[in-house]
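Please complete every field before forwarding. Incomplete forms are returned to the sender.

SECTION A: IDENTIFIERS
Entry label: holo-324
Bound molecule: zinc ion
Molecule representation: SMILES string

SECTION B: INPUTS
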Amino acid sequence: MQVFRSYRRVRRSVWMIRTAVAALLLALPGAATAADAFPKPDAERAFSYLKQICEIGPRISGTEGMIRQRELLQKHFAELGAEVGLQEFDVSHPETGAPVRMANLIVTWHPEAKQRVLLCCHYDTRPFPDQDPLPANRTKPFIGANDGASGVALYMELAHHLPKIQPTYGVDFVFFDGEELVYDNSRDKYFLGSEHFATEYRDNPPEHTYVCGVLVDMVADRDFRVFYEKNSLRYAPEVTRSVWRTAARLRVRSFVARRKHEVRDDHLPLNRIAKIPTTDIIDFDFPYWHTRNDIPAACSPKPLGEVARVLLTWLTEVPAAEDL
Ligand SMILES: [Zn+2]
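SECTION C: PREDICTED COMPLEX
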């Protein structure tokens, strides 16, 4: 009984302290609202976008599926208040030689800012799941829930919050076409869209400059963990470390500040041709990479929410251009 009484006393004191703190916060509206106002990405909504994109089916460059996805994205981002543009170009199909119309999709926030940050991913899917353990599956359709749709879904979710934050720089989302219009790994070229984008940026410079960039790829794995990627550390060490620092401060433990894989990805043309220091957030330990099982069931809402939270916060604390 004595225990019960003192427990009640403790509970009462805790309640009184809480009330006093709440009253204090109300008396300081600036302090209270600043903490409450920073938007929190919705992991479930991000995952619903991932499923919606997968429902289109394969989104191979130059196909009907890619066109349908592009239309969906143009509508989505325009409705949320961004400027949406296309950077079109043609390539020869690696199998038939026929022309394939490609389009990088560029979504612009705060267009007046002359110094900008590039957030990007690829939005095409590989023609076939070449790594499937069953050889018979390697000529069947590939959905690309993690390898393709996850990055797109992440930016669709971020778009709800971009108008509500004050980023350090202007922000562009860029969706690269033709990351892997690859039928033969030893013959066909990767990174068609990012290479075109980087070459245009170098040869026909726009009025703005990109201070730095972040590429995301495979960010919805159920066992999501991302390490420092070696090419990112080589070309964009400060950008890489700054993103992981933000994650550590937010206690997002899926970002591990340790180097692991070396990945060739769309960040290579950005770093090498455009000289935009760009890091790659990629979970390369995905067991269903390039298999028929890269489907929504292999993915989870949680990492999408985590990466969205890290990037949204990081956009408000990007280091000064001269430090990158
Ligand atoms: Zn891939």
